[in-house]
Amino acid sequence: MKEPAFWRTDGGRGSGALARALLSPLGRVYAWAVARRIRKTEPVDPGAPVICVGNITLGGTGKTPVTQAILRRLEEFDCSPAALSRGYGGSESGPLEVSDQHSADQVGDEPSLLARNARVWISRDRVEGAHAAVEAGADVIVMDDGHQNPSLLKTLSIVVIDSVAGWGADLVFPAGPLREPVAVGLARADAVIVMTPDADAVPNYARLKLAELEIPVLQAWLEPKEAPPNGPLLAFAGIGRPQKFFDALEAAGGELTDGIEFADHHPYTQRDLDHLYEHARSYDAQLITTEKDWVRLPAEARALIKAWPVEARFANPAALDALLLDVVDARGSAR
């Protein structure tokens, strides 16, 4: 889905304010249901430590690149980690270990992306998926999303937030972008990662309600692995906040002719691709997209469209290492 404009503030006036007012009662019901599920569920220990990389808002915050960074770091600590995902958007329910034989249509785009460099399991039932991963040799489970899923006993719960988008209108879905009230979600977190536009940006911790938080707050950003291609570029993206991708391309020196937005996890049809090809020809431009979008494309389209890879970088890598080493040390006691 595309984020509706009224999820952001408009000074308290206009149609956005009216939409939020009308939907706020439903938001309170949604928040009550989430809180009740968490309260009533007894989490299961899968036999290995669980790191949850989640968020409190709907839409893109940078969870998947953070998950990739954590998986890489755990491997450097001689762990055998496995990512665990619900497999949103895929037809398979799991438990299933993702391989290069699986398409994003089967297992979801985020697992497809993660599986290019790590072991990944998908499962609608997180407990079954975690047990399958542990039985296959995983000694640390890294959940990509799941802060509101209470089924697994979590050793480390990390909340990722976009420093620019923040909490939006600070209202729970459908009135706003929150999955639950901010204070409630942060109370279950062990650390927060604030994703900034670049290394030089300074987050407004007070606006983000993080200034008085008594848990580690880390700063990170997405850094390109390579420069954008030379020449005119026609960018497209179906992620939580496509404009972030377009802005990053331009900031890195890309010659952006246009940016076309699709809904998050959008399944690209031949009609979509034909439109993109035609649009690119009119600009004499190279089509470029995110890695998460690229894995959703058919093979023949991937041969024609450039993926622009990025990775999460941390202002204080030692702070992340300290969090992860506590989890590494917990491996023996979890078994």
What does the model show?
The structure is a single chain. This protein has 335 residues and is of the alpha/beta class. It has two domains: 196 residues, P-loop containing nucleotide triphosphate hydrolases (Rossmann fold); 83 residues, Rossmann fold. It is 35% helix and 20% strand. The chain is built from twelve helices and 13 strands. The strands form two sheets. A nine-stranded mixed β-sheet has the order 3-4-2-5-1-6-7-8-13, sandwiched between helices. A four-stranded parallel β-sheet has the order 10-9-11-12, sandwiched between helices. Strand 6, helix 6 and strand 7 form a beta-alpha-beta unit. It is globular and about 55 Å long. 43% of the residues are buried.
Instruction: Tally the structural domains.
Output: 2
Could you tell me the number of beta strands?
Answer: 13
- What structural category characterises the helix and strand content? alpha/beta
Beta-sheet strand percentage? Answer: 15-25%
Distance between the termini: 40 Å
Itemize the secondary structure elements and their pairings:
Elements: H1 14-40, E1 50-54, H2 63-76, E2 81-85, E3 96-97, H3 104-107, H4 109-114, E4 120-122, H5 126-135, E5 140-144, E6 156-162, H6 182-187, E7 191-196, E8 217-224, E9 232-237, H7 242-251, E10 255-261, H8 270-283, E11 286-290, H9 291-294, H10 299-302, E12 306-308, E13 310-314, H11 317-329, H12 331-334
Parallel strand pairs: 1-5, 1-6, 2-4, 2-5, 6-7, 7-8, 9-10, 9-11, 11-12
Antiparallel strand pairs: 3-4, 8-13
